[in-house]
Amino acid sequence: MGSVLLRNGRAMHLDGLRHGAAIDLGIGADGRVASASPPAARPAPRDAVPLAADFERVIDLAGAWISPAWIDLHVHCYWGATWLSIRPELVGPATGVGLAVDCGSAGEANFQGFREFIVERSDFPILAHLNISTIGLVAANRVCELPGPDVLDPERTAACVEANRDLIKGVKVRASKTVLGHWGMTPVHVAKATARALGLPLVVHIGDAPPTLDELLDLLEPGDMITHCFTGRITNALDRQPGHLRRVRARLDEGLWIDVGHGQGSFSYRTARHAIAAGVLPSTISTDLHNGNIAGPVWDMPTTMSKMLAVGMTVEDAVERSSAAPARFLRLEGWGRAAAGAPARFTVFDVAGGEERLPDSYGAVATIRRLFEPRYTVLGAEVRPAGRRTESGTAASA
Fold first, then answer.
1. Model pLDDT, residue 111
2. Helix 301-310 with 269-277: angle, nearest 10 deg
């Protein structure tokens, strides 16, 4: 792709630029930022393009926002190898996402296939959290990934991580009654010890107890993450157990991360509203996209972000927790910097008025009146058109 000038944008969470600052963003043919400056005054005649001679293409953004590229920290895209997974292209730039993280689809025994057949063939970046189960989510939720002790092999898991440090950013365990069964906390302790030894965060799925949220909070350390933080599961929901909100808020101050991970059965409007009103905001926003929820109730990243506006978050907070914050969690230096020489990684979007009635994971419906509408995903010099799946009308009938 040749060089491109993105004209007439507005900055959001771009380093060194105030919120709402007008910006012309030039990207060289090498895929790096060439210039980031306030728009030049339009010369006469009206159709003349400032700086056009310096770039092969010019795209007028008409006042749309530019943020660091959105990152979806929780997807399942090991297509063809795990039952729940969807094709990688369904979780990426077509919906404004510049980087996706597969959250535990693969374990150490099948990670090489994920690397070779998914990551290395993808036209956008994909990272992973490695499942503590050696087999990963091959047939979840039909066959449990933790049927017995043979699927826990910390030594092989560590060897897999060391051989794939460029891709593996965390260790994943599903800590709910339906997965752990009679094991109790044993797999969670094994996952935590393995993650600690490797210097990686532990990413914990929560659901029905046991284990309880209190048991997990006792184990987790700063830098670790709980995903499905606004689940409506009775035993873990933040709006049903006195003291949970206070304790989670204290742990957030210490450095614990909590992630939305909407999913097919893990996001409750009621829980989210209650927690956010009490000052417990998610550290990151993610979808948990897979084949059971891509046609609803999740659809995509911008629709999930839009739901967060309906439960009390601001536009600025939702964008930060979908771009800069997950980049920090993944320790990605300079993600989406609008500075000369930085790799170009941006999402261009509008926040439009509208009215869509969208369900949470439990059938409760909310009317969403502000909607994130991605326009482009910028990866290097490639500027890809983007949009929401629910624009097709699917969501309106839900």
1. 98
2. 60
pTM: 0.94
Give the C-alpha separation, 310 to 157, whole Å. Answer: 40
- DSSP-assigned letter for residue 191: H
Cα–Cα distance for residue pair 100/93, rounded to 1 Å: 9
Q: How far is Cα 369 from Cα 307, in angstroms, rounded to an integer?
A: 9
Buried b (16+ CB within 10 A) or exposed e, 35-52: bbeeeeeeeeeeeeebbe
Give the dihedral of Cα atoms 210, 213, 219, 225; nearest 10 deg.
120
Q: pLDDT tens, 200-251?
A: 999 999 998 889 999 999 999 999 999 999 999 877 777 777 788 999 999 9
Tell me the one-letter amino acid at 276. I
Q: What is the DSSP string of 17-37?
A: S-TT-EEEEEE-TTSBEEEEE
Q: Is residue 216 left, alpha or beta, with left meaning phi > 0 and alpha meaning psi from -120 to 50? A: alpha
Q: Which distant-in-sequence residues (6+ apart) come within 8 Å of 70 by Cβ?
A: 96, 97, 98, 301, 305, 319, 322, 323, 347, 374, 377
Give the strand pairing for 65-68 and 345-359: antiparallel
Q: Residue 242 corresponds to which tokens in the numbers above?
A: 């006195």
| Amino acid occupying residue 239 | D
85-117 tens-digit pLDDT: 999 999 999 999 999 999 999 999 999 999 999
> What are the structure tokens assigned to 314, written together?
């601001």
- Tracing tokens 């009308």 back to the chain, one arrives at 393
Strands in 168-175's sheet, in edge-to-edge order, are 70-75, 97-103, 126-131, 168-175, 202-206, 225-227, 257-259
Spatial distance between the Cα atoms of 30 and 147, rounded to a whole number of angstroms: 49
Residue 184 above 90 pLDDT? no
Q: Which residues contact 353 (CB under 8 A, 6 or more apart)?
A: 369, 370, 371
Q: Give dist(CA 161, CA 166) in Å, integer.
A: 9
- Helix H or strand E encompassing 101: strand 97-103
How many angstroms separate the CA atoms of 9 and 67, rounded? 10
- What values do phi and psi take at 189, rounded to 5? -65, -40
